[in-house]
């Protein structure tokens, strides 16, 4: 059936709900160029103000899935699991979680993205390993998962063509932060990528896209329902991103923290958080393991061994880890010391993430070059006791670190008399 785009824009502007046929027509004709950007922009803004029903969101998700190639992972034995994070500061979870889960014999077929702005990208961190390649064809991707049990590659341009076009448009028309469009964007990619089960890490707080738990819960439930509606076992965890995750923010220093964690050399609280996520992914694959059993794979070397297998399979030099875990090589380093005694009560993730970007660790635009050595390393986290003059962080950059940048870090830090406890996993949505 043929429609007029102007009529559909008006329908949504006036609060109407689209049929499957209408959404399929819009997406097909947007991808083939019949519907121009200016009309799709108008529609995105109408959706921003009027929203979409659950059924409309499901129709949109599947229309985007069908706009490009869909990976078929059926020749890989077992239940294939995938994981997606809505992004944050210091989020190196995939680097640790994926090999940890794969070390239990569960195939992990993961497509990841780059960072933009204050949020870090898994691919950027992996590129700090000399020789690491993330471009693979579908056949190469499947072959690697069959042989090693794990692959982390870049998002294929052939998948979900509509999302690539629509996201770029939303990014420049102030229509990114609307739950139906976020959910359909995320889930169309996850569904098209072909895994059987999906863990969604929905971050919430100062450094996350969702600022309130209520909004995060709504997004999580929408995505879980979308996954289940097409036969994918899907679970979401709402995790705290009010402070950076872990102690390292940047690329090589986050890679270093990931390697140390895989080798069992990280704070117990951080290891347990990763193990709790791993437990959910293993359950999705039909494997019940206790947190103690999962933590043992950090200590006995199995998680790290699986990581090294993946790095070798993707052209990286696993013997470069001595260099990888060496001190950061930068022109400028500034150590920041506590100006008062007390407890760290706030380390604002957004402010620290933006600072790391300005130091060179992130991109303000997609064309910006990443400095793998730049970043921030924390020595204290929320709830920790500090004494005046004690080291609390170090800033690293090959750009001059000005007083203004130091002030930005200090503005992101609050020391008070009150000790605050924060938990990483706020809620699980099934």
Automatic annotation (TrEMBL):
<keyword id="KW-0808">Transferase</keyword>
<dbReference type="InterPro" id="IPR036566">
    <property type="entry name" value="PYNP-like_C_sf"/>
</dbReference>
<feature type="domain" description="Pyrimidine nucleoside phosphorylase C-terminal">
    <location>
        <begin position="343"/>
        <end position="416"/>
    </location>
</feature>
<dbReference type="GO" id="GO:0006206">
    <property type="term" value="P:pyrimidine nucleobase metabolic process"/>
</dbReference>
<dbReference type="GO" id="GO:0009032">
    <property type="term" value="F:thymidine phosphorylase activity"/>
</dbReference>
<dbReference type="InterPro" id="IPR000312">
    <property type="entry name" value="Glycosyl_Trfase_fam3"/>
</dbReference>
<dbReference type="GO" id="GO:0004645">
    <property type="term" value="F:1,4-alpha-oligoglucan phosphorylase activity"/>
</dbReference>
<dbReference type="InterPro" id="IPR035902">
    <property type="entry name" value="Nuc_phospho_transferase"/>
</dbReference>
<comment type="similarity">
    <text>Belongs to the thymidine/pyrimidine-nucleoside phosphorylase family.</text>
</comment>
<dbReference type="Pfam" id="PF02885">
    <property type="entry name" value="Glycos_trans_3N"/>
</dbReference>
<dbReference type="GO" id="GO:0047847">
    <property type="term" value="F:deoxyuridine phosphorylase activity"/>
</dbReference>
<dbReference type="InterPro" id="IPR017459">
    <property type="entry name" value="Glycosyl_Trfase_fam3_N_dom"/>
</dbReference>
<dbReference type="Pfam" id="PF00591">
    <property type="entry name" value="Glycos_transf_3"/>
</dbReference>
<keyword id="KW-0479">Metal-binding</keyword>
<dbReference type="GO" id="GO:0006213">
    <property type="term" value="P:pyrimidine nucleoside metabolic process"/>
</dbReference>
<protein>
    <recommendedName>
        <fullName>Pyrimidine-nucleoside phosphorylase</fullName>
        <ecNumber>2.4.2.2</ecNumber>
    </recommendedName>
</protein>
<dbReference type="InterPro" id="IPR000053">
    <property type="entry name" value="Thymidine/pyrmidine_PPase"/>
</dbReference>
<dbReference type="Pfam" id="PF07831">
    <property type="entry name" value="PYNP_C"/>
</dbReference>
<comment type="subunit">
    <text>Homodimer.</text>
</comment>
<dbReference type="InterPro" id="IPR013102">
    <property type="entry name" value="PYNP_C"/>
</dbReference>
<dbReference type="InterPro" id="IPR017872">
    <property type="entry name" value="Pyrmidine_PPase_CS"/>
</dbReference>
<dbReference type="InterPro" id="IPR018090">
    <property type="entry name" value="Pyrmidine_PPas_bac/euk"/>
</dbReference>
<dbReference type="GO" id="GO:0046872">
    <property type="term" value="F:metal ion binding"/>
</dbReference>
<dbReference type="GO" id="GO:0004850">
    <property type="term" value="F:uridine phosphorylase activity"/>
</dbReference>
<dbReference type="InterPro" id="IPR036320">
    <property type="entry name" value="Glycosyl_Trfase_fam3_N_dom_sf"/>
</dbReference>
<keyword id="KW-0328">Glycosyltransferase</keyword>
<dbReference type="GO" id="GO:0005829">
    <property type="term" value="C:cytosol"/>
</dbReference>
<comment type="function">
    <text>Catalyzes phosphorolysis of the pyrimidine nucleosides uridine, thymidine and 2'-deoxyuridine with the formation of the corresponding pyrimidine base and ribose-1-phosphate.</text>
</comment>
């Amino acid at each position: 059936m043929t429609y007029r785009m102007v009529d559909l824009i008006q329908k949504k502007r006036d609060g109407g709900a689209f049929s499957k046929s209408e959404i399929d027509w819009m997406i097909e004709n947007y991808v083939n160029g019949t519907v121009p950007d200016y009309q799709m922009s108008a529609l995105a803004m109408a959706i921003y103000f009027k929203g979409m029903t659950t059924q409309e969101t499901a129709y949109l998700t599947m229309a985007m899935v069908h706009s490009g190639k869909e990976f078929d992972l059926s020749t890989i034995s077992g239940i294939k699991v995938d994981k997606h994070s809505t992004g944050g500061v210091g989020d190196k979870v995939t680097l640790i979680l994926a090999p940890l889960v794969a070390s239990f014999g569960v195939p992990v077929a993961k497509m990841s993205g780059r960072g933009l702005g204050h949020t870090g990208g898994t691919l950027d961190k992996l590129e700090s390993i000399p020789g690491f390649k993330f471009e693979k064809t579908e056949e190469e991707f499947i072959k690697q998962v069959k042989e090693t049990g794990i692959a982390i590659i870049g998002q294929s341009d052939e998948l979900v063509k509509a999302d690539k076009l629509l996201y770029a448009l939303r990014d420049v028309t102030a229509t990114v932060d609307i739950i139906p469009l976020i959910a359909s964007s995320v889930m169309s990619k996850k569904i098209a990528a072909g895994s059987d089960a999906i863990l969604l890490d929905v971050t919430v707080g100062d450094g996350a896209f969702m600022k309130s738990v209520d909004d995060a819960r709504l997004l999580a439930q929408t995505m879980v329902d979308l996954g289940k509606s097409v036969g994918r076992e899907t679970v979401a965890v709402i995790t705290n991103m009010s402070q950076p995750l872990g102690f390292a923010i940047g690329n090589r220093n986050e890679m270093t923290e990931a390697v140390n964690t895989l080798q069992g050399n990280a704070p117990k609280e951080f290891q347990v958080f990763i193990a709790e996520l791993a437990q959910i992914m293993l359950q999705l694959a039909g494997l019940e393991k206790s947190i103690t059993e999962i933590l043992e794979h950090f200590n006995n070397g199995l998680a790290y061994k699986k990581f090294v297998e993946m790095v070798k399979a993707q052209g990286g030099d696993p013997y470069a880890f001595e260099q990888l875990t060496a001190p950061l090589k930068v022109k400028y380093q500034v150590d920041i010391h506590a100006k008062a005694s007390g407890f760290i009560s706030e380390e604002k993730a957004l402010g620290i993430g933006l600072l790391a970007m300005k130091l060179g660790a992130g991109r303000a635009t997609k064309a910006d070059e990443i400095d793998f050595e730049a970043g921030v390393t924390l020595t204290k986290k929320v709830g920790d006791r500090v004494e005046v003059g004690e080291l609390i962080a170090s800033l690293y950059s090959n750009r001059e670190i000005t007083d203004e940048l130091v002030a930005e870090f200090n503005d992101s830090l609050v020391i008070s008399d009150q000790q605050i406890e924060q938990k990483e996993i706020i809620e699980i949505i099934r």
